[in-house]
């Protein structure tokens, strides 16, 4: 298999996510939330680059055209290919109960304003916005706990390792 810049980038993002999780101190809830949100950003980017790594491995002319799992599958099929890795990526996104759907929801919620219930003062006397467990659209808010992020990282590492093993045979 030829060396892929994407392969390195995915590994780096997973490493950064692990390093952020190592800094989590569950006694400081604000720090935990900040670190877990940062892990979500790192792992979402790892996901995006893994899609492009698959495209590169299967020799798509321009892996940069890959923006999501559906797009990856369509581009590969147009090239006469339908690798199991791309099919699995699409299946994980389509399954609303998968860790990937949870990660994508977390990433999306990073860019949404919180639903304000009431202002509260935290221990440092800073006004904090309290949020309900549901978004305005009725979807559940993300549970920003370290165990959730640890699960995302574990699943991402398993997925990437398995795919790399499969793609070695290609």
Written account of the structure:
With 170 residues, the chain is mainly alpha-helical. It has one domain (5-168). It is 60% helix and 6% strand. It is built from six helices and two strands, in the order αααααββα. The protein has helices at 5-22, 29-57, 69-78, 84-94, 99-109, 146-168; strands spanning 116-121, 127-131. The chain has a two-stranded antiparallel ribbon with strand order 1-2. A hairpin with a 5-residue loop joins strand 1 and strand 2 (127-131). Helix 3 (69-78) runs antiparallel to helix 4 (84-94). The longest helix has 29 residues, at 29-57.
The span between the termini is 8 Å
> Globular, elongated, flat, extended or rod-shaped: what is the shape?
globular
- Tally of individual domains: 1
Q: How many strands?
A: 2
- Rg for CA atoms: 18 Å
Can you write the helix and strand succession as a string?
A: HHHHHEEH
Mean pLDDT over all positions: 87
- What characterizes the major β-sheet? 2 strands, antiparallel
Helix content: 55-70%
